[in-house]
């Protein structure tokens, strides 16, 4: 009976990681589609998003059944709760990838700025690598790595500010850039959220190891014990 | 012992609803700050966001302890899992309210379009009312109401498209509108997400009642039994 539960837990763990890879691949592809103006790749991302949503549903169901039937405690329960919560972050990454893919289709054929698209490609690389490393920290249960990865989220915010500034400048100088420029700003805001969700995954890694819910937002680290509420 | 558990469950339920009201108030205030160009109200929203984050942490902790110590099954467990998952949606609403508040500060003093800001105010009202009604459906455990509320999310998307079109037009016609116009588009995208999160809450209401995970996205309703994955 115990072995079965451990097998189930292991499978849950792997299926969650797999979902993470699906999300990270979706982001990577959506940014590639966007900067390559590749409508067919964008459509692929959009139509594959339901696999990510479906996986979240499956993980919810499996987690629920494991809790109900096996009544796990402490670290086992903590792992299941982590999968339950963190799968929302992965699902939202998938949503944002789909939104970026939708932007690809919306701005296809408009005047573009290669300079800003280069920055978006870089931001996409950074975003994808933060997601991948957050997942690696999860697999290794490495809190230190998780904290380091979360700190890199700051770079994403800096990149986003740069894209916003350049987009605004381009749009102000030439109305031809309004459609693409406003799209760049939206895409940058989506990638910023992706970084935030990756940070959440990092927070879950710390929780898995310590049982403490922490906030790692690149600027400061607070724990549930540092804060007081009415 | 049993009574104590029921009291705990009831308290969890109420504290979740309270968190929903905090999120809905944050959205309402952030949009008000934005359209009234009210920097001090915007700062209030930003500095209050940590109460929403803190509440999510508390609910996680309480849910975890209730599962570990009381080992609930079926509908009680379902309720706790709902709070665990849906509190993420509320937390993200709070984040988006804070982002709207930040936009208030960023575009303060720039050339504005009263016409588009009127639409944003309307979109904010619709968003807030969807959130409130989703919470009411949750409190009443009313699946039918939840499905109706989720359908209203379509109006939010329509409103967002209108704001995007007008913003692009204004920016193309006059470079003076680039800063505000791009901000309008971001704010509309944040409010769109708020609608998505409210839809998620509606999905949780259906789950609470039926045990089935469904997708209510305004266009179609699918359940976990309709979909097949490899």
UniProtKB/TrEMBL annotation, chains A, B:
SUPFAM superfamilies: PhoU-like. The keyword Transport applies. It comes from the Bacteria. GO terms for biological process: intracellular phosphate ion homeostasis; negative regulation of phosphate metabolic process; phosphate ion transport. Transmembrane segments: none annotated. GO terms for cellular component: cytoplasm. Its main location: cytoplasm. Residues 17-103, 120-205 form the PhoU domain. Keywords: Cytoplasm, Phosphate transport, Transport. It is found in: Cytoplasm. Homodimer. Belongs to the PhoU family. Plays a role in the regulation of phosphate uptake. This is Phosphate-specific transport system accessory protein PhoU. It comes from Companilactobacillus nuruki.
